[in-house]
Amino acid sequence: MCPAQPEVRDQAEQWPVVRSADLHRDRWVVALREDWVRRPGPEHAESEPFRRVVMEHPGAAVVLAVDDDERVLCLWQYRHAVGRRFVEVPAGLLDQPGEEPLDVARRELVEEAGYEAEEWTHLVSTYASPGISAELAHLYLARGLRHVGRQGFTPEHEEAEMETGWVPFAELRAAVLDGRVQDAPVVIAVLTADARGLMST
User: Fold this and answer.
1) N or C: which end of the chain has fewer CB within 10 A?
2) Which position among 56, 99, 116, 159 bears the catalytic label?
3) What fold is seen in the domain 60-195?
4) Where are the chain's structural domains?
């Protein structure tokens, strides 16, 4: 007889951390540390701990903004870590104390694209790379768009070179499925909205 399969659900769990040390920490919200971890249970209390590197991250909010013609507001932005210009959607860090993910989504839609939305639907929350990062991204569908301008926000660095445009949802979905668009939040948001029947195409 096969043993019972665990429940199909992620669960909070914390293994013993013997010691930690910072590898990088400054005024930015993201930091890098190393932990030495042991397997749980008394039978492993004397076992040799193993090292894991952790990127501390406050989380992010991502916005799939769709207009009345089923077009998605997209951004074209350079990402230095991979030397690539990505098709993205508005997104930002939860870097203000006490700010809720939906508040961040609203703020980023204004700052990066100059729009507000009347209707917000939470699509999904996902950990991008839990083997190393604590980042939890909250993805939203925004509708009922209204242009309000960037409200005094001035983009800098990579964002200063960012381009914006409208892409029909069906075209963006096709680009995701054939690999032309590879930014994870875009892929997840597009496929989740489509799978949940929230798009009319």
Assistant:
1) N
2) 159
3) Nucleoside Triphosphate Pyrophosphohydrolase (3.90.79)
4) 17-56, 60-195
